[in-house]
């Protein structure tokens, strides 16, 4: 679509340059809208359509891809946030789409509720996190989108579409994780669980011992993940066991949490990334020191306090889902690749798991999945490393995280998603003129 005018109508403002958190993508939209009501969202969609402009919603801009980039009208949903309603009998809560994950403990806690599972970053909005396939770890638990039982969309003609188990239920598998391609989500209903405590154990362990027994380790406990710093023989394992809300807690003290998370994990890591960029040959030694200085602690606390980690060092990330049983082979292939290329990689590789689900564009669709995430410091060139690892992931039937860097196109993605064309049929039904398209969606879904 092309612009017919640059005069800002009511509710739209002249666009300013937008950049995502990872400093990978940037764009200057023609207009920006900041709605605080659903009616204002509808008005923005209609205004964009009248001017021949596509419209895209943004959340916290935490995706590393250009999935939220809006050349036409950028719809900032930050003003559309908070609890709309809660049903104590079912544990279901309805949230405005722009509500950030970090707001949820204060919203859900007084209700005695919690998210069933979370990732380790909580800066995203609930609509952005579910729409891109954000997930945590746990062999019995799906990604955030599996917790969605209903949502409300503003569609391309400005109408309101309810999708839940009773109204348009056939659309739920597409709309829960819809990449922003089906409409503007204005609210989401989540199935929550009773509040619970997590017992956390973090410790360094030998690479080979953990990788050799990966499936057993991942399925033996509620939540398991590990980090491997390239050029070392050690991984940092994180094991979380769910306990009732009334269980006695042993939270980290304020000083210990600051030392571990702010000073060591972020402060020291920022220094090591900067030093590694200046002197790449020092990275293996730096990584070995990092594995000795981090981890090795036990504590228990309310689930959000354990699931979430603070991340202040800026980076770029690619993550792939592969069959869970393929993780050990793939991880060793990445290790061998790094050694063969003589790369110096300062950022750790993260390994997690998730249960199979039935969301059509979920990376765990109908497959027990393991996740391998690679990272690079944002001031380093990530492209050669990411492309080479992507080739390994593709050889293992990998599916890329929609919100993290990858180089795939619709033709190859169709091969990995059995319901890919079913999703496209829903898109054709709800947005035949591509009012919610952008170059990223054109690439991964087709025009």
Automatic annotation (TrEMBL):
This is FAD-linked oxidoreductase. The keyword Oxidoreductase applies. Residues 24-195 form the FAD-binding PCMH-type domain. It comes from the Bacteria. InterPro entries: ALO_C, FAD-bd_PCMH, FAD-bd_PCMH-like_sf, FAD-bd_PCMH_sub1, FAD-bd_PCMH_sub2, FAD_lactone_oxidase-like, Oxid_FAD_bind_N, Vanillyl_alc_oxidase_C-sub2. GO terms for molecular function: D-arabinono-1,4-lactone oxidase activity; FAD binding; L-gulono-1,4-lactone dehydrogenase activity. The keyword Oxidoreductase applies.
């Amino acid at each position: 679509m092309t612009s017919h005018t640059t005069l800002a109508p009511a509710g739209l403002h002249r666009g300013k340059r937008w950049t995502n958190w990872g400093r990978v993508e940037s764009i200057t939209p023609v207009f920006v809208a900041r709605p605080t009501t659903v009616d204002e969202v509808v008005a923005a969609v209609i205004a964009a359509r009248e001017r021949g402009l596509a419209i895209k919603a943004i959340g916290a801009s935490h995706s590393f891809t250009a999935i939220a980039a809006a050349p036409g009208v950028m719809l900032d949903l930050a003003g559309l946030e908070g609890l709309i309603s809660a049903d104590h009998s079912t544990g279901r809560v309805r949230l405005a789409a722009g509500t950030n994950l970090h707001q949820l403990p204060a919203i859900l806690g007084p209700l005695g509720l919690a998210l069933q599972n979370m990732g380790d970053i909580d800066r995203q909005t609930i609509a952005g996190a579910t729409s891109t396939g954000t997930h945590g770890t746990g062999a019995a638990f799906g990604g955030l989108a599996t917790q969605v039982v209903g949502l409300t969309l503003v569609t391309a003609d400005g109408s309101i579409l309810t999708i839940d188990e009773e109204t348009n239920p056939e659309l739920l598998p597409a709309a829960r994780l819809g990449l922003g391609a089906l409409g503007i989500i204005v609210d989401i209903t989540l199935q929550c669980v009773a509040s619970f405590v997590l017992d956390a154990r973090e410790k360094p362990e030998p690479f080979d011992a953990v990788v050799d027994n990966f499936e057993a380790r991942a399925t033996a406990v509620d939540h398991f993940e590990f980090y491997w710093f390239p050029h070392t023989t050690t991984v940092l394992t994180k094991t979380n066991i769910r306990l009732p809300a009334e269980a006695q807690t042993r939270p980290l003290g304020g000083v210990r949490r600051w030392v571990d998370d702010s000073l060591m994990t972020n402060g020291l890591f920022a220094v090591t990334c900067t030093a590694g960029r200046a002197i790449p040959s020092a990275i293996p030694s730096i990584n070995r020191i990092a594995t000795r200085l981090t981890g090795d602690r036990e504590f228990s606390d309310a689930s959000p306090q354990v699931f979430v980690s603070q991340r202040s060092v800026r980076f770029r990330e690619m993550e792939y889902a592969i069959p869970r049983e393929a993780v050990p082979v793939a991880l060793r292939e990445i290790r061998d690749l790094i050694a063969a290329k003589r790369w110096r990689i300062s950022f750790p590789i993260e390994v997690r798991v998730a249960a199979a689900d039935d969301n059509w564009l979920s990376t765990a669709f109908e497959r027990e999945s393991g996740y391998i995430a690679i990272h690079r410091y944002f001031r380093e060139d990530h492209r050669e490393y990411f492309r080479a690892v992507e080739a390994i992931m593709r050889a293992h039937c990998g599916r890329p995280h929609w919100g993290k860097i990858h180089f795939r196109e619709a033709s190859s993605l169709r091969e990995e998603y059995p319901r890919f064309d079913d999703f496209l049929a829903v898109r054709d039904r709800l947005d035949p003129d591509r009012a919610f398209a952008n170059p990223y969606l054109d690439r991964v879904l087709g025009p």
